[in-house]
């Protein structure tokens, strides 16, 4: 084992594994937009000590599953939104507690909805490039937003809850960040 590998904390591997497991959950059958995308980004932002890992690991996991699911024309807008959600995790989850996690998850859901649907309106041909067309885009996406909101809260709860439980059961993990 190299010196560099020895310096990487066990937390890094636990957090990385959890992000990749969450990413591969996307490959299981699920309702539209009920997926752990925001949870992966928030979790990475909250728990990776090195900010480069906070962005890179969740983005790599997302990209690998997108290669399996299929790359879509507006993927870059999703990735931009995803990176913003990592920032939310870094900034808003300096202290991880239920209240902060729920508020940040809701903020992430609304941000993702606003950005991605704006992108579909601005770059697509489905809606007229008018304020009414923008509103039509957002209204048409509400059913997907409901699923995303519920899915985000569910997967954020699972990821943060499991990690905190693991830290409680393995006190050595609680001493250092990933």
Short description:
This protein has 178 residues and is mainly alpha-helical.
Description:
With 178 residues, the chain is an all-alpha fold. It has one domain (3-172): Arp2/3 complex 21 kDa subunit ARPC3 (Orthogonal Bundle), CATH 1.10.1760. Helix content is 77%, strand content 0%. The chain is built from nine helices and no strands. The chain has helices at 3-7, 10-25, 37-47, 51-69, 75-92, 98-123, 131-140, 142-169, 171-174. The chain is elongated and about 55 Å long. The mean pLDDT is 93.
Topology:
Elements: H1 3-7, H2 10-25, H3 37-47, H4 51-69, H5 75-92, H6 98-123, H7 131-140, H8 142-169, H9 171-174
Helix pairs in contact: 2-3, 2-4, 3-4, 3-5, 3-8, 4-5, 5-6, 6-7, 6-8
CATH architecture: Orthogonal Bundle
Order of helices and strands: HHHHHHHHH
Task: Count the DSSP helices.
Answer: 9
Report, as a whole number of angstroms, the end-to-end distance. Answer: 19 Å
- Categorize the overall geometry: elongated
Largest beta-sheet details? none
Low-confidence stretches: none
Tally of domains: 1
Q: Any idea what the radius of gyration is?
A: 17 Å
